[in-house]
TrEMBL record:
Coiled coil: 21-69
One Gene Ontology biological process: mitochondrial protein catabolic process
Family: Belongs to the MIEAP family.
Domain Mitochondria-eating protein C-terminal: 86-261
Subcellular location: Cytoplasm; Mitochondrion matrix; Mitochondrion outer membrane
Species per Swiss-Prot/TrEMBL record: Mizuhopecten yessoensis (Japanese scallop)
Name of the protein: Mitochondria-eating protein
Amino acid sequence: MDQLLMDISETTNRTLKCTIGKRVEVQVEQLQREKSDLTKDNEKQRETLKSLQKENAELKTEMNGAQLTDNDPAIADLSDPTRPLSLGEKFSDLYDNEWTDAMEEMTDIISDETKVIKLLLEIVCDAYKFCLYRADRFMDKINRTLSGFSEELSSSETMPKVINQTNKDYRKRLADFAKEAKRDANIKVGTKTEAYMKRCVFVCWLMTVQDPKVCISMKPPEIFDEDLYKPYTKKGKRLDYVVWPVLHLHKGGPILGKGVAQGKP
């Protein structure tokens, strides 16, 4: 009897140990799986955090760059052909190239060089005023058009229509100005002078659709200010007449390009 009780007790103990052992093994395996899952989750979270930190750093860099380029034209996006410094270069090239060609052509028609200079100055100033007035109306029209597209704005069909309309409007403005300038000049305009007119409108159009607008000075001082003007053929304390206007980043803003003027004693 005692032996039987001992056998039963031993069997029961083995059974309990086996059962408990299996339960422990199951729990250990479960804990290991949970630990593995937590480790994987932690790795994913670390990767996500790294990715977010990288994106945040990139966004900060872009924002800082955008602020710098907005506030300082000297460090603007060099890939942008309409950045202020690029427009300053275009305006300077206009004087060096098309103005020079038109000057040579016009002096064959008008013997008085001073009159030709003043006529060419009037053309660029009129082109700027022409574009200034029409650019405001043009941009209002474009903004109204774009605001009506909402989600369609990025569609492949919508944007080409806007771009085509932009090009058509620009070509129309160019043709309108050429007609007005020829009529006002009251003389036969040669091909080089007409090319000068068109280039004036092109550059001035790019200047006037900026925000803020790149502008030119149309009211020169009486004193020859060498910070504003380079001498044409004569230096002097006083300014005789302007040959080429000063270019400003915006109205009352820093100079993008010096003008050219004739000095006198």
